[in-house]
Write a structure and sequence with these properties.
The complex is a heterodimer.
Chain A: E1 2-6, E2 9-11, E3 19-20, E4 25-26, E5 33-35, H1 37-53, E6 58-64, H2 70-79, E7 83-87, H3 94-108, E8 112-116, H4 127-135, E9 139-149, E10 152-159, E11 162-169, E12 172-176, H5 188-196, E13 199-202, E14 211-217, E15 226-227, H6 233-243
Parallel strand pairs in A: 1-6, 1-8, 6-7, 7-13, 8-12, 9-12
Antiparallel strand pairs in A: 2-5, 3-4, 9-10, 10-11
Helix pairs in contact in A: 2-5, 3-4
Chain B: E1 2-7, E2 9-10, E3 13-14, H1 16-32, E4 35-41, E5 58-62, H2 72-86, E6 88-94, H3 97-110, E7 113-118, E8 129-134, E9 139-145, E10 150-154, E11 169-172, E12 182-189, E13 201-205, H4 215-225, E14 228-231, H5 233-237, E15 258-262, H6 268-274, E16 279-284, H7 291-294, E17 297-300, H8 303-318
The chains are: A alpha/beta, B alpha/beta.
The complex binds flavin-adenine dinucleotide and adenosine monophosphate.
């Protein structure tokens, strides 16, 4: 049994969001990079748990990124897993990234590919579905629970106003979110072990991007809060009704 | 040439998010000077011709009950075939749970560039540039789709539904879906509640409410407003409220017309899930709470005193 976990590097959740080069690029001055929380806390930890229960599982992780993604992948290796693959390319086109991951996944013959629900910077929620399509494998998205049972998996996924339980044939691609696992902190032993784990660098396959970012923009600043005195709740209701017209 | 809008449904009914997508797709078709058509996989109880009032001329259907359960692989193949059969040059999805499972697959299948989480109509003056949310609602990106076929998935609650007159013709497509590899074995829906991502009003509570036993006064407000209930992450982590109510960066992202936050400090990760709300009301006893900076209206005060009064006043105008 082989599992591949897709991990990406994102700015820390508290980073100041600003742009440079005429709003064409994210301004990463002073930004701390982290593993995308959905990849780290849910996809990776669940895969590690599966391996802990069944030692015959091989666990690899893959990232599409430049050399600056290596600290992130080392941190991922410190949590667990056997080997990491960095595909040496930088892109924000989902199809380009997914094609790179699919190429590695095809070569490796993985039974299971995990992604996070979305990257917290690009918010595409797209890579998992694209990889699944390129592998011609089933895809269960927004998983909140994941159990392996031999050649199938039982996955609970989010639907509007609830959850649905799916039985899916392997090989499959699953995107993970809260519920699938609990966040872990790497320990000293893990960090030491990660130093000697293989980190393979592979060159990208030739693929044309289907989209390109023209520019970024920040939302208009809020006008400022209108405070209503605590003893005049009726005034708040009036404002919501007559001014904001939302009730 | 046409704009094809994917119509998502559950329990026999077309979802509200798809009515938004239909209105959006119809407006886009007008902008491009092409026809707008819908595509429904499976069966619903309502009259499909009536969807014409959202501005589409035709509803294509693959009337096969096996398609009432989502298998993204089966769906993507059927949608791609339908897109080819109808000559679609743009395909529109809602960026809801189904759209997130399917749109990306169709994109990879057709090599059609996808903008996921679009919030407005594309600018076609120079390319095909679609605005989408990035950085969890803290910014926007303008993304150009460079492939011949284009796919847009529209963020729920970001485009206003408009309904006029008119009926659509209903066209049965002869597409035979593949056998599903995903079997649905159980569905657990919270009955009688407004689904969080579809709600126009969301009432949300944080650690300031002190414990699960105090949620009654917040639920009273929710009922008076026909709102969906939400909460901050620590509240769900402490099991005061179910996990599906947790909003924020790591939880559900919402964009209602009105978001009322009670006893929530307004941490950046919380705001990431709610800052696309049109109007934000904050009730917090600490005037320095960061949430006030993101709010439109606020009351500095004790939730336990304010909530019952607020519910009273709402009931007066809701009659
Ligand atoms: C990577 C990461 C991801 C995260 N993701 C999320 C997420 O998705 N969603 C999320 O919510 N959080 C998330 N968090 C946690 C977030 O940082 C905050 O810790 C959390 O939102 C705080 O919840 P709270 O506002 O309910 O509680 P607190 O911060 O404890 O705030 C309670 C508030 O209640 C007020 N209060 C107290 N008593 C009363 C009263 N009687 N009447 C009125 N007001 C009162 C207080 O003044 C205070 O402002 C995340 C954190 C990290 C690091
Ligand atoms: N550059 C990347 N390298 C590896 N995996 C990625 C990359 N970008 C995104 N992913 C994976 O795809 C998921 C969804 O990303 P997105 O479609 O960008 O929201 C993430 O949670 C990751 O698991």
């Amino acid at each position: 049994m082989k599992i591949l976990v897709c991990v990406s590097k994102t700015p820390d959740t508290t980073s100041k969001i600003a742009f440079k080069d005429g709003n064409a690029k994210f301004d990463d001055a002073g930004v701390q990079w982290i593993i995308n929380p959905y990849d780290e806390w849910y996809a990776l930890v669940r895969a590690i748990e599966l391996k802990e229960k069944n030692a015959s599982i091989t666990l690899h992780m893959v990232t599409v990124g430049g050399a600056d993604a290596e600290p992130i992948i080392r941190k991922a290796l410190a949590l667990g897993g056997d080997e990491a693959i960095r595909i040496n390319a930088d892109s924000n086109d989902s199809f380009y990234i997914a094609s790179q991951i699919a190429a590695v996944a095809k070569d490796g013959g993985y039974d299971l590919v995990f992604t996070g629900k979305e990257t917290i910077d690009y918010n595409g929620s797209s890579i998992g579905g694209m990889v699944a399509e390129l592998l011609d494998a089933p895809y269960v998205s927004l998983a909140t629970k994941f159990e392996l049972n031999g050649t199938t998996a039982t996955v609970t996924r989010e639907i509007e106003g609830g959850e649905e339980v799916n039985e899916v044939a392997l090989p499959a691609v699953v995107s993970c979110q809260k519920g699938v696992a609990e966040q872990r902190i790497p320990n000293m032993r893990g960090i030491m072990a990660a130093r000697t784990k293989p980190l393979k660098v592979v060159e990208p396959v030739a693929v044309d991007a289907l989209t390109s970012v023209v520019s970024f923009e920040l939302p208009p600043a809020k006008a400022g809060v209108k405070l209503v005195p605590a003893d005049n709740v009726a005034e708040l209701v009036r404002l919501l009704h007559e001014e904001a017209k939302v009730i | 040439m046409s704009v094809l809008i994917f119509i998502d449904h559950a329990d026999g009914h077309v979802k509200k998010a798809s009515l938004e997508a239909l209105t959006y797709g119809a407006d886009l078709a007008k902008q491009l000077g092409v026809a707008a058509e819908g595509l429904l996989l499976g069966t619903v109880t309502e009259d499909l011709a009536a969807l014409g009032k959202y501005g589409i001329s035709k509803v294509n259907q693959v009337s096969n009950e096996a398609l009432n359960n989502l298998d993204a692989q089966v769906y993507a193949k059927a949608i791609a075939e339908a897109a080819t059969a109808t000559g679609a040059t743009v395909i529109v999805f809602s960026h809801n749970q189904t759209g997130k499972a399917v749109a990306a697959r169709v994109s990879a299948r057709l090599k059609a560039g996808l903008v996921a989480g679009a919030i407005s109509l594309p600018d076609t003056s120079n390319g095909f540039v679609v605005k989408k949310t990035v950085f969890s609602g803290k910014a926007f990106a303008n993304v150009n789709i460079t492939s011949p076929i284009k796919i847009i998935s529209l963020n729920p609650n970001s485009y206003k539904i408009t309904a006029g007159e008119g009926a659509a013709t209903v066209n049965q497509l002869s597409i035979t879906p593949d056998a599903a590899k995903v079997k649905v074995t159980a569905v657990n829906k919270v009955s009688g509640e407004v689904p969080l991502t579809e709600a126009e009003i969301v009432v949300s509570g944080g650690r300031g409410l002190k414990g699960p036993e105090n949620w009654g006064i917040l639920e009273d407000l929710g009922h008076a407003l026909h709102a969906a209930m939400a909460c901050s992450r620590p509240v769900a982590d402490a099991h005061w409220r179910p996990h599906h109510e947790h909003v924020g960066q790591t939880g559900v992202q919402v964009a209602p017309n009105l978001y009322i936050a009670v006893g929530i400090s307004g941490a950046i990760q919380h705001l990431a899930g709610v800052n696309r709300s049109k109007v934000i009301v904050v009730i917090n006893k600490d005037p320095e709470a960061p949430f006030f900076k993101a709010a439109d209206y606020g009351i500095v005060g004790d939730a336990f005193e304010i909530l019952p009064k607020l519910t009273e006043e709402i009931k007066k105008i809701k009659g």
